[in-house]
Write a structure and sequence with these properties.
Blueprint: H1 6-18, E1 25-29, H2 38-48, E2 53-58, H3 65-72, E3 78-82, H4 87-157, H5 163-177, E4 183-189, E5 194-201
Parallel strand pairs: 1-2, 2-3
Antiparallel strand pairs: 4-5
C-alpha cells in the first residue's frame, strides 16, 4: 500500500484490521505536503492500529525527540530513519520490524490461548467442586436418614415401651431430624373430642 496522505492509508488500515489481515509495518515521511505531517499521521495510524510498527523517515530537524514524544508518546513501535539512507538499511529495518511484529502476534495469540485454557480448566474445577458439594450433601442426608431409621427401629424394638411412649419418642426423633427447637404431642380425646397435650420436648 502506498498513500500520499492519511485518509486513504487510514481507511486501508482499518479495513485490513477488520478483515483480520492487519499491516505489520508502515514507512512514514515526516513531511507530507500539503496535509498532515508524518508525526500527526503516525498518531492517527496508531489510533486505528496500535500494534503496527512505524518507521518515521526524515532529513530535517522538524521536531526534537522530546517534541515528537510529547505528540505521539514514547513507543517501542517507532524507529527514526534519517535521510539519506540506502536500500539495504531499509530492507534490514523492514525484515527486523516485520519479524518483531510477527513474534508479538504469536505471543499475544499464545497468551490468549493460555487464558482460554485457564478459564476452561477453572470452569471445569468449579463444576467438579459444585458436583462434589452436592454429592457430599446427598451422602450426609442419606447417613442422617439411615441413622433415623436405626433409631426408630430401636424404639420399635423396645418391648417395655408403651404405644404412647413409642409415638412420643419417634415424633421427637422426627423433630430433631427437621431441626425443630421445640416439639409437642397433642392427642385427641375420643370421649370429649378435645385435643389434649401429651408431651413436650426441646
Amino acid at each position: 500500500l502506498s498513500a500520499k496522505s492519511y485518509d486513504p492509508a487510514g481507511t486501508a488500515l482499518a479495513q485490513a484490521r477488520a478483515a483480520g489481515r492487519p499491516y505489520a509495518l508502515a514507512f512514514v515521511d515526516i513531511r507530507m505536503p500539503p496535509g498532515e505531517d508524518g508525526v500527526e499521521t503516525t498518531r492517527q495510524i496508531w489510533a486505528v492500529d496500535p500494534e503496527i510498527q512505524i518507521v518515521l523517515c526524515t532529513a530535517y530537524a522538524d521536531y526534537s525527540w522530546d517534541e515528537m514524544i510529547a505528540r505521539i508518546g514514547n513507543s517501542d513501535r517507532l524507529v527514526i530513519l534519517k535521510k539519506p539512507f540506502d536500500n539495504v538499511e531499509v530492507l534490514q529495518l523492514a525484515n527486523a520490524l516485520t519479524e518483531k511484529w510477527s513474534l508479538l502476534q504469536q505471543t499475544r495469540k499464545k497468551m490468549g490461548d493460555l487464558e482460554q485454557l485457564v478459564a476452561q480448566r477453572t470452569r471445569h474445577l468449579q463444576e467438579a467442586n459444585a458436583a462434589l458439594e452436592i454429592e457430599i450433601a446427598q451422602r450426609k442426608r442419606r447417613e442422617e436418614h439411615l441413622a433415623l431409621q436405626s433409631d426408630v427401629t430401636c424404639i420399635l424394638a423396645d418391648s417395655n415401651a408403651t404405644t404412647a411412649e413409642v409415638i412420643t419418642r419417634i415424633l421427637q426423633l422426627i423433630c430433631q431430624e427437621l431441626h425443630w427447637d421445640t416439639g409437642a404431642l397433642w392427642i385427641l380425646d375420643q370421649h370429649s373430642k378435645i385435643l389434649k397435650w401429651s408431651a413436650m420436648w426441646h
